[in-house]
Amino acid sequence: xxxxxxxxxxxxxxxxxxxxxxxxxxxxxxxxxxxxxxxxxxxxxxxxxxxxxxxxxxxxxxxxxxxxxxxxxxxxxxxxxxxxxxxxxxxxxxxxxxxxxxxxxxxxxxxxxxxxxxxxxxxxxxxxxxxxxxxxxxxxxxxxxxxxxxxxxxxxxxxxxxxxxxxxxxxxxxxxxxxxxxxxxxxxxxxxxxxxxxxxxxxxxxxxxxxxxxxxxxxxxxxxxxxxxxxxxxxxxxxxxxxxxxxxxxxxxxxxxxxxxxxxxxxxxxxxxxxxxxxxxxxxxxxxxxxxxxxxxxxxxxxxxxxxxxxxxxxxxxxxxxxxxxxxxxxxxxxxxxxxxxxxxxxxx
Length: 349
Fold this sequence. Notes:
It is built from 14 helices and 11 strands. By secondary structure, the chain is of the alpha/beta class. Helix 1 links the parallel strand 1 and strand 2. Helix 1 (34-52) runs parallel beside helix 6 (189-202) and helix 1 (34-52) packs across helix 7. The longest helix is centred in the first third of the chain and has 19 residues, at 34-52. It is elongated. The termini are far apart.
């Protein structure tokens, strides 16, 4: 108090600047599965809702924009349903936080060079870029993945590696990150990737809340290799392995040494091993192990046989030996595989 007067203390409230939403641009390529974009988009919007329910969230969240990579705004999906995109990629003028390419069309690869040029030019201007399923092909076609590690759908890994030798492809994980480039495997892996991006942006609690709203695991156990086939037998039809395949199936529980296989093929062990490796890229022993695991998978999926009996029928030895073979080839134990892939009708009462 001065000169008999009271001082008024004015307390000015601190006004927090409203945080801008992150613009997520999703590019649906012609011929995609609906889940390629529906799954990730639902994850981002579930996270947006979770953030809006938090007190003092300051406006943080996501804004989604679907953009067409071709000259038409309507994109047809494999299911026959059309997706209406508000804009073409060339019409986007706003800063993009995250750019995601969903799926890939070989037809567009031949005729859509302008889109790949646009991708190459826009990449340095975005905070991060990603792909869903075979959208990895689009990133690679634009040269963005050169010298980088990426994943794609397990069924396309060989084709991808042959087409883009400068990319280190690994189809085991559901998604991969290399610097600010993210790529995911099969269609549903886009959901795994979207949850990981949400966690990266806003933390585990928000990502977990989004996962719970959609009744999803925050992190799916296992690897993409659980879903693929270990042997492409149809492509080996005219090889020694292809000719041996029916006989091997009937004798899986027996000794299948390279000597026995060579003898059955009326060849010397040395010549048999050399030709087998050249035709399949695998040694006879590795091929037999993969075949045994493939057949064991079917027993685990379709039967109630105890695992030790399956191991014996398939020539995988005992429980310990079978477990090692599964972990080596599938990155999952036999019991975990059965829990994930057994016929769903068997669990309905």
